[in-house]
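FAQ

Q: What does a record look like?
A: Structure on top, sequence underneath. For example:
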């Protein structure tokens, strides 16, 4: 029986380099969904709220640096272009009294800030994260978070540039 090579078994990989990148992309999916699942489980156990990963990202970013954020700033921080969905998360968090409108506008826009309930919620989440995930991460991977963040930033930049090229040249590599 002939051993199958990567070129015959995977439509995204016609070389070892492409196979390596494809493997990386599969791991990105797996890490992303594991991260979302962890956030949701941690929030549910710590606080009893049924919040999705996107909701939690918005909540924690609003608390970050102790200053109000606009929907546009939140979308920028998350590298999201779907402002209506970010706004939906904000409305959901306001309804749960985890965040509120800031008293002063930010650059003529509505800003949102953490409430006392939101502060308590994020503190409980943070403590559970510290006790469980941070401990497991350091045991599993050591202190590689800073280096990994740099690599992921470079990867994000490559995907963003590839998206711009596709949008501008409409996928025709002969126009590059």
């Amino acid at each position: 029986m002939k051993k199958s090579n990567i070129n015959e078994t995977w439509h995204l990989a016609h070389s070892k380099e492409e196979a390596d990148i494809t493997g990386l992309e599969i791991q990105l999916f797996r890490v992303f969904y594991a991260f979302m699942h962890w956030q949701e489980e941690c929030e549910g156990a710590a606080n009893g709220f049924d919040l999705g990963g996107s909701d939690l990202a918005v909540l924690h970013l609003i608390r970050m640096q102790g200053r109000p954020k606009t929907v546009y700033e939140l979308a920028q921080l998350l590298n999201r272009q779907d402002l209506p969905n970010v706004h939906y998360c904000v409305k959901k968090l306001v309804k749960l009294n985890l965040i509120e409108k800031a008293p002063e506008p930010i650059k003529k826009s509505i800003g949102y800030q953490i409430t006392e309930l939101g502060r308590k919620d994020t503190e409980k989440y943070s403590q559970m994260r510290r006790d469980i995930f941070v401990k497991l991460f350091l045991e599993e991977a050591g202190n590689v978070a800073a280096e990994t963040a740099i690599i992921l930033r470079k990867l994000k930049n490559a995907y963003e540039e590839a998206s711009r090229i596709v949008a501008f040249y409409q996928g025709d590599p002969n126009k590059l």
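Q: Is there anything notable about this one?
A: The chain has a mean pLDDT of 90.
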